[in-house]
Amino acid sequence: MLKGLFYIFLFLALGELIRYLTDIPLPGNVIGMALIFIALRSGILTLKMVKVASHALTRNLALFFVPAGVGIILYSELLIAHWVLILIAAVVSTVLVLLVTGLVHGKNEPDE
Amino acid sequence: MNKLFENPVFSITLTLAVFYLARRLYNRHRWFFFQPVLITIITIIVVLLLLDVPYETYKIGADYISFFLGPSVVSLGVLLYEKSALIKKHYKPILIAILAGSITGLISVVAICLIMQAPHEILVSLAPKSVSTPIAIEISTLTGGIPSLTTAVVIMVGIFGAALGVNILRLFGIKSPMATGLALGAACHGIGTSKALEISPLAGVASALAMCINGIITAILTPWVLSLIQWL
To answer: What ipTM is given for this predicted complex?
Structure first.
């Protein structure tokens, strides 16, 4: 677990470093995700080294979004001022994305 | 109370306790409205308002929890590796579905704003609503939107999709973990991915992949679509 956490943080740090040094418009953690994937594919890391720690983190991903969700109260004025528009645009567009993505995939490939 | 919550322990304990109870409630009843994230966020907002604790104070402790988003996103790369053989085998339908979802997300939100005659800054702020917060903020800032409005809408889209997405997909006969994951990731970024991970690791990986690719596609397309409507 400790070793796994070390590798995960190492790749996070590498991602943040690349983000700091270049103008890639991607967050450091996303770059870190790509890097750890490449490291596993190329055999620099083995799955055994990082599996337990990474599963422990991803299993609880929803919890880590809670503070950002609570942060919506900061923008309550802005949201209330435009609530009809925001509600319709966000809900309709989100439902469309869900259905188009799901149906396009369903049409192209009967699942495993 | 404000003074007490300046000690991070209280925000952290409150968040963990509410989330733990919300998850137990959901596991027991499985009713869609009992989504742990949704219930936890609403409960904490109510508690903070009742105790008169400002968000800035809650955030002192809550930041320790959000901090784990970074390593969790990196961990998604490990999951991606575990499922890479399957992804590779089906890469074409996966990419087509994500591309279709990205374009739909951007065009539909812009079209709705135009039809409803939304002020330009609102339209621009809503355009990147389906991508994860850091990328959305980047796009919004770059195109002249209001980053704080973008943040709020992105989070709300995520919560909405996590709460109702699976039910909406089922209603239209979309049940496979792969299709469900792709849809949740393309429409509702990280929060959708957290929901997809609850369904199965494969759905989670599909969602993470859709979230990343959608982020990149939207970052490229948004300035382009916005200059197109300016020109029209």
So the answer is: 0.90
